[in-house]
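Minutes, project check-in
Item: structure for the 215-residue chain
Input as provided by the requester:
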Amino acid sequence: MQRCVIFGGGGHARVLIDALQLTKQVELYGILVPDETLWGLDIFGVPVLGGDDLLPGLANQGVDSFVVGLGSVGDSRIRQRLFHYGLDQGLDVLSVRHPTAILSPHARLGRGSQFLPGSIVNAGAVIGENVIINSGAIIEHDCQIGDHVHVATGAHLSGTIQVGEGAHIGTGAVVRQGIKIGKNAIVGAGAVVVKDVLPDTCVVGVPARPMQTSD
């Protein structure tokens, strides 16, 4: 059984702790957070050890793996940094699969990715590294989801969609089959995407259009 630490103590981390405790396949050794007011407390029985700077010394205490417990709302850079920080310390990154997630044996799942309650990944889908497929999200057949993407709660991606690295698909969004969503793009909550989305672009509405910025 691997001994694991979790980066982050917010809502997303709590969902991951819940999933990992249900699977009973890892030992949750502790939580690392920058918020000093949480140090010394516990979350669902898992102690908050301190800040991220403790990680290099934890290997001497038998810690051999980590989970990135932060979500992302339009900016995946912190998740990416923590992902690479843990790997640089020589630790394994764990994938998380809630027992109610449905993952096709014919899908390809990248390391460190997370599949939360009621999520579905269908045949032929390719999921990159450090991806969040949040509660109730659906990834249909033959979709390609890049590294560090967050597909938020209840989003539906139809077949053969391509999502670029670091993109965020908002809560309840719907993306039509065959669409390409560029790197670091943001699809707003509830949007219906019927045209390709360029990199670094935020689209909102029904149908989804680029968000207008005020001068």
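Outcome recorded: The chain has a mean pLDDT of 95.
No further action items on this chain.
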